[in-house]
């Protein structure tokens, strides 16, 4: 059996930061993040990858993945709590709410594409075929969708702020005085 290639990515959900293993062989975003464009930059940036994987994590936590067989584990134990102190049904509901807010922020133009690529793990060629788009169109539209999603999550490639800020205090000790 071939070993799966995973990468650890830091994700923050509702103030809780955690490292998540991303299966780069499974995710279309992982594949795009490893590929370089003509300019030498990755086709999907780090912020875009984290945003897409965060959407997928909420989709999975919400229990929205399609099942191929019957689920006989329907007895949910409400006494079981996760790290945030939520029961399993509460955690699933919270994940659905986060997913809904993220897709609303992406807008109706991008929500379906984000669901297809990030959550249902469809490749770009399949998306283009299903939607009747010209070749290589999905890559451009996906980049725009992931940018909007990253902005919703507050993710950026670099921190930006003012060049200079007002000096608030300047204090120097006298000779022989320590800090």
TrEMBL record:
Residues 21-154 form the DUF6456 domain. InterPro entries: DUF6456. It comes from the Bacteria. It holds the Pfam family DUF6456. This is DUF6456 domain-containing protein. It comes from Ancylobacter koreensis.
């Amino acid at each position: 059996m071939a070993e799966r290639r995973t990468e650890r990515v830091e994700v923050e959900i509702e103030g809780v930061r955690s490292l998540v293993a991303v299966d780069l062989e499974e995710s279309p975003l992982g594949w795009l993040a490893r590929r370089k464009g003509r300019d030498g930059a990755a086709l999907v940036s780090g912020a875009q990858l984290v945003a897409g994987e965060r959407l997928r994590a909420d989709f999975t936590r919400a229990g929205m993945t399609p099942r191929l067989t019957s689920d006989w584990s329907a007895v949910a134990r409400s006494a079981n709590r996760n790290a945030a102190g939520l029961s399993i049904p509460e955690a699933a509901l919270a994940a659905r709410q986060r997913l809904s807010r993220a897709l609303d922020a992406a807008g109706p133009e991008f929500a379906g594409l984000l669901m297809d690529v990030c959550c249902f793990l469809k490749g770009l060629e399949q998306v283009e075929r299903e939607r009747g788009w010209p070749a290589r169109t999905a890559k451009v539209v996906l980049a725009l969708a992931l940018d909007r999603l990253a902005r919703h999550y507050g993710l950026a490639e670099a921190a930006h702020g003012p060049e200079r800020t007002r000096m608030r205090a300047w204090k120097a000790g006298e000779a022989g005085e320590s800090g």
